[in-house]
Amino acid sequence: MSKKKWSSLAAGTLLSALVLAACGGDDGGSSAGGEGGESSEGLETRIVTIATGGASGPYNIIGTTLASEYSDAFGVNSKPQTTGASVENINLIKEGKVEMAFVMSDVLTEAVDGTGNFSEPVDQVQQVAALYPNFVQVVTTADSGIETVDDLKGKRVAVGDQNSGVEVNARNLLEGHGITYDDIEVDYLGYAEAADGLRSGQIDAAFLTSGLPNSSVLELSKSLDLSLVSVDPAKVEEIAEEQPYFISMEIPADTYGNEEAVPTAAIMNALVVSSELSEEDVYKLTQEFFDSLESLENSHQAASDISLEGAQEGMVAPVHPGAQKYYDEQ
What we know:
CATH architecture of the largest domain: 3-Layer(aba) Sandwich
Order of helices and strands: HEHEHEHEEHEHEHEHEEHHH
Oligomer: single chain
Distance between the termini: 62 Å
CATH topology of the largest domain: D-Maltodextrin-Binding Protein, domain 2
C-alpha cells in the first residue's frame, strides 16, 4: 500500500473513532446507561429544556438556575424557555417540545382528568415533585373600596394571561364566590401588564398568583398605596370540596408593606416531566434537583419552601417512575 493511501485510511479511521466518541457509543453504551467510566454520570437525553413562565416570574428565575445546574452536572444542553406558563407548558410536553416544566396544580389536575383546558387526559405528563405554594394575590389600590372577592363585582379586573394557571384559578375562585366573567370587566393581563394597569388606573384589581414576593407587585408597592384583597378561609375550604388543590394560607405581614397578614387561597406548584424520559434519567434529574435546592433558594425566595419532606404531599398527577425510585431510596 502506498504511503498516500495508508495516510488516507488512517485519517478515515481516526475520523470514525472521533465520531463514535462524540456520539457516546450509541450502539453499545449510551451516556446514561453504561456501567463505569464518565458515561454513567450523563443522561440518555442530550437536551433538557425547561418550560417556565413570564420572564419576571419565579418559574423563569428558578428554572434558569435549575437549567444551569443540569448543564453543569450532566453536560447536556439544558435551558429555560419563557412561556405563557401552565397550560402552554403542559401542551409543550404533550407535543414533545420540552422535557420538563413548572406548572400549577390546578392546571395539572385538568390535564390529568381531561377537563377545562384539555379535551382529553394528557398521558405524556408525569410529576416529579410538589414544590412551593402559589399565593392568590388579589391586588387593588387602597382607595378602591375593594376589600373582599365579592367587592369585585362590576369592577375591571385583570385575571392573568388567557388560559394561564393564574387565569384558571382566578376563574375557579370567582365561580366559588358566585361570580362569573359576566359580572366583571375582564382583562387578560400578565404580571407586568397588570401592575401597569393598576398604576395607570386602567383596572381596579388584579389577580397575580405566584410565589412570594411577586416582583411586579413588590415594585408597584414602592410607588402606589396598595391593598391586598382577603379571601375568607371558610370559603376556600368550601371551594376545595370541588377543587381540592386550593388550600387556605396567609400572605405574611410586611410582604408588600401590609401591616397584617392577609388570608387568601393558595395552589401548590408542580415540577413535571415528559413520560418519554427514561427512569434512569428522571432519577438523576430528581436527585440533582434536590441537591441544588440551595442554589434555587438563592435565585428566588419562593424556592425556600421546597423540601424533600414536602415534595410528595399534594401531588395531583402520576409520579414518574424515576422520581419514585429516588423517593423510595430516601
